[in-house]
DNA sequence: CTGAAAGCGCTTACAG
DNA sequence: CTGAAAGCGCTTACAG
């Protein structure tokens, strides 16, 4: 069985007795521009169709420098949040005639750097990146190389790089306010040990809201490792609940929320009786928990779509200089886990 | 700010005053084969390194026909099972110097077909596909075009196409046997309306086990739409539990399990008191449910790694004819949801 | 209106 | 041992 041979431009050309250039021009819709006869144009199109011709993108890329490939770097494609984001980006990319190449950085700068190199080497036309802590330098370098680039989920204030993300400050402010309205005062917060924008903004949202509500003395932020948060969450909860006697906890990511629910379940702490809980990101676990979990919902679909839109704009129009900042609003979905008993 | 210009082979060559061919040969480790002087070889390598040369993969591909790109088609990258599988495939691919391009078919043949075309057009060296129902024809076509190809999670008995998947028959047999050992007799089964291998094998595993245990009269398989299973699951459970008075249910996929738990929760059915449950695939929901759910665990890591291994073998050694069949064993993780009360 | 040629960056068979 | 040339498939500036 032979390797299927693709028909090339040349094949189409020779079948018609014309030059490959002519065929290329017609097929790229530049017949008028080059003042090609209408009859000729039609017969070229007909021949290409009947021979089932599709252009070799590799050759086209070598010539013109475009692959219609978008590189996507998330921190972990197996994390449901990023899996969903990837799906949305994929859908939007396909609509716009692009294909997505992806990689997971595991919140690690040197992995991110390697992935960027690999993806650039594959000739991606642009990149969508969830940057990790300390990636500022390599993101800046990439940006300065003038490769179309959009950050998602997180951004760098100091860089002129476009991004699409949640209003993280608003998100935790909403959650904190809700708990305060329910009558909770001793409200604690669990976050990653990271200086990346969304972590910082989420913490600020909580802290400012506590201050503004006259609850400064109860501010308590536990920071846990981003790479292996579970032990940190366990230790933090043991301290918060058994020592500090906190009455409510806000988990600032989906992973932290799930890890927290494991500890609370294992320790037989009742929600919301022993402690009220607010989680982050939609999740079946939240809905199916014996006391359904109140959570902060991200407009993840819009976040993903906007990222692709901005990127494609840059790739097509070369408006690399323009910094687009899309900040989308959170929603608080209230269930029983955060109600006052 | 200018577009960063990559250093090319030619740049390295002219900096040394030698021909590009020489540089290419040395950098590809063929110095000895071409009897290039050792000193020369060393200086070429040093120059390439100091100039930060990386080969242009697009050009290399046009020349040699390889992109080091693996195409992955799953049914839905946002489904946690496939997200995890994708991550494993990604990791293994990177280890072997490949990058993954992906797409989601939504269990739809014509989407699958389009994706195959798109990915082939991007010049992928090989494809890993989760085939959907009725995809037999297009998979055969692809196989006959001699493109390296491996199916995962599902396969076609009738085709000579390699695959890596779970022993699905054994999986549900294990689950059924466990429930029978617990003393359950009226055991029902929920599956997709699909003729794809894993659905068929899972149903057979259950049915045969019931027959062999003298419980033929209780065999009851409910089939629900694969595209939008939730309404079907709701209807099936209403019938099974409220009419047929089934005492135990096996859900044959992760999605079906979750949808089922939603109905059981909404209807206030107690597990395992009102009905015992066995789910499919590891999941936080199962562990955090008030009565932790017994489930069938797939060796998903091995399934993914083997798929990449087989594919890379085909791509490198061109052993396209050989049909590799990797069938991996399931494990039953027993929790309280399936115990006899 | 249309064809021949150059060139994107690489590799390999060929000639010395 | 080493260089010059051809060619992968395409597109565009150039010459008629």
What is this structure, in a nutshell?
The first copy, chain A, has 341 residues and is an alpha/beta fold.
How would you describe this protein?
Two copies of one chain form a homodimer. Chain A is α/β, with parallel strands linked by helices and 341 residues long. The first copy, chain A, folds into three domains: 9-55, 434 Repressor (Amino-terminal Domain) (Orthogonal Bundle); 68-166 and 301-328, Rossmann fold (3-Layer(aba) Sandwich); 168-298 and 332-338, Rossmann fold, CATH 3.40.50.2300. Chain A has 13 helices and twelve strands. The first copy, chain A, has helices at 9-16, 20-27, 38-50, 57-64, 80-95, 109-121, 136-144, 168-181, 197-212, 229-243, 254-266, 284-288, 300-317, and strands at residues 69-74, 99-104, 126-129, 149-152, 163-166, 187-192, 221-224, 248-251, 276-280, 294-297, 325-328, 331-333. A six-stranded parallel sheet of chain A has the order 2-1-3-4-5-11, sandwiched between helices. The longest helix of chain A is centred in the last third of the chain and has 18 residues, at 300-317. The first copy, chain A, is elongated, with a radius of gyration of 26 Å. The model of chain A has no long low-confidence stretch (mean pLDDT 93). Chains A and B meet through helix 4, helix 5, strand 2, helix 6 and helix 11 of A and helix 4, helix 5, strand 2, helix 6 and helix 11 of B.
Number of helices of chain A: 13
Number of strands of chain A: 12
Assign the structural class of chain A, choosing from mainly alpha, mainly beta, alpha/beta, alpha+beta, or little secondary structure: alpha/beta
Uncertain residue segments of chain A: none
Domains of chain A, number: 3
The helix content of chain A is: 40-55%
Biggest interface found: A-B, 52 and 52 residues
- The coarse silhouette of chain A is elongated
Report the mean per-residue pLDDT of chain A as an integer: 93
Compressed to H and E, one letter per element, the order of chain A equals HHHHEHEHEHEEHEHEHEHEHEHEE
Oligomer: homodimer
* End-to-end gap of chain A: 72 Å
- CATH third-tier fold name of the largest domain in chain A: Rossmann fold
Q: Any guess at the CATH architecture of the largest domain in chain A? A: 3-Layer(aba) Sandwich
CATH class of the largest domain in chain A: Alpha Beta
Q: Major sheet of chain A: size, sense and barrel closure? A: 6 strands, parallel
Strand order of the main beta sheet of chain A, please? Answer: 2-1-3-4-5-11
